[in-house]
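Aim 2 progress update. The chain analyzed this quarter is reproduced below.
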Amino acid sequence: MSILSRSPKRRFFASLLGASFLSTGIFGAFSTAHAEEGMWTFDHLPISQIKAKYGFEPDQAWIEHLTKSSARLSMGCSASFVSGDGLVMTNHHCAVPCLSDISDKKHDYYTNGFSAKSNAEERQCPGLEVDRLDKITDISDKVSQITAGKEGDAYNKALEAYKAQVTKECVGEDKAKWRCDVVTLFHGGKTALYRYRRYNDIRIVTAPEQAIANFGGDPDNFTYPRYDLDYSFMRAYEDGKPVHTEFLKFDVNGPKEGDLVFTSGNPGRTQREYTASQLILERDLNNPRLLNYLNLKEGMLWQYGNESAEHRVQSQDTLFFMLNSLKAISGTRNALTDSQFIQSREKQDASLEKWMKASPERVKAYGKPFDEIEKIISVQKKIGDEAFIWAVTTRSGALHEALALVESADQRQKPDAERDAGFHDSELPALEANLLAEKPFYSDFETANLALDLTYGRQILGPNADLPVLLLGKENPDKLAARLIKGTKLGDAKNRKALYEGGQKAIDDSKDPLIAYAKRIYPAYHNFKTNYRNQVEIPLRKVGEVVGKARFEQAKSLKQDGNLYPDATFSPRLSYGQVKGWTNAHGKEIAPFTNIENLYRHATGEEPFKLPDSWVKAESKLTASVPVNLVSTNDIIGGNSGSPLIDKKGDAVGLIFDGNIEGLVGDYYYDGKVNRAVSVDTAAIAEALNKVYGEARLVKELENGKQ
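Predicted structure tokens:
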């Protein structure tokens, strides 16, 4: 299971992976694609390469249809529309936050699944937004113009002022329906404005039991053969009615071996063109630090869940994602600790540096960016631990929401052009949707999480360091966490809404202990963010722009500029490949498909290989030869979860939910011989809906493309 989640409540580990405090990137700016490699923007597709290898040339109508039928979930997944009545297909694990949030003491929808037999029974997912790409505009020249000659805070102010202006113009008068994001591509080499159609009334339609969606659990995770029905369906509403959209036809037969297939999704984050120095920083400091923290968090979650049935329900989705994250990050160490990989990157760096120094004109144009990178890395080494502790303490849970209320009140007092990123008028609807949504609040769980984070900060930095002293004062972590969480009223969405709408005065007047705590630490928190941005993020962007331009020019000189794609940015991308198995490290041929017959053979009756009762009862009804999962050579990464697998007709034939263990190096490079994307076959989804769950209403909609 592969996911880059954005939910601040329980998916804290994902915020660490994507946290700006922890971004090391510089990045050599982009990759040169080989074979099926590449996560391509929709305005720069490798059409000639696809035609040369597969004899298929996507035309503009095909591209437009795919663009308008694809979607992004705000919590960090991909999706697609599969009927003209707003039906959205994504993974079960992408619906987990929704299923957990709508559960109660009588209903555990995460474990037992959910099924709406009519539109009226479909349940709204708190805070969830679905975005559909509408338009991409290149604004690189303007960004370069307004930031030219500026450094640090001056650079940031100019950039944020322009972002406020351009996104406000892009959104227009209807912020509820449109979202506009400024997306940095090639790590500063290009900047684009992405306009999305927003849908913020999203309701769950159906999802299977966790036991079949994640059949095999952690032992099977990132392995193959696989037997998971990791799917769910939602519906987008507007003004109380299902929206009418373009959609992908749902092919109930699925693909065949050797078929050309595409994925349309939102890969989250890759580092394929990090310099060797950056990779070494990841290997020696960032990766071990994150693994250490996640291991501690995992232990806390197991202990908490074992205390009672109620605690198990409260923590099970977080533990599920935690185990996935640990396995994924551990897998990336295979690349980082591979000396040949580091050496090959050193050779690439040396080649580019030599090219930049080959003439006085190039020296003048590009300067010494690799020297600048080393200076930035030295800063990251000095403040990395402090950045990490700020991130783990403030980027999830109730404290995250308290700080968001305090910071948004402070930022909204300023003119739009003077605000920090994330608080411009055009960005507030997304903030409000998540911050003000009605979600369950588990006091014991929040207390346990905050106590561990505070304890960890003291252990890493030492009890006398400035940050632990600020965060703890004279209290110990357990008592402080208990006092703040037990006393807060922020678990009630009405109270959060009152504070948000009341602005700075409401924050100033608040007696809530968690708000008081957030107000106390906010000045230091904001100062650290500002300093980190000025010392690390902006210098990285500026040097990335230089390196990006150099790589473009170098590629042009080699006639390879058409083969360049940017690192992942959780924005819409297309990848292509074919349904194909591989030969593993032991010389075993891995077939591309699994089937229902072998699903039952794989079942043992004991977790995590225990089938839900619905599947035990339905065994005699099911066709043994129906494929369950399949692999393809598509280039994917976390964030692609929920991406449709599409054939050349533009029909949905599968649903991406994972990658194989060999593909975990995909953060850093793609190896077409062994990297594989893992999908649920649409034939299996249709078979399950028909014969296991009796979802005749939904099957008819999928077959007809409408209700």
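The CA atoms of residues 411 and 419 lie 6 Å apart. The longest helix spans residues 513-557. These observations will guide the mutagenesis experiments scheduled for the next reporting period.
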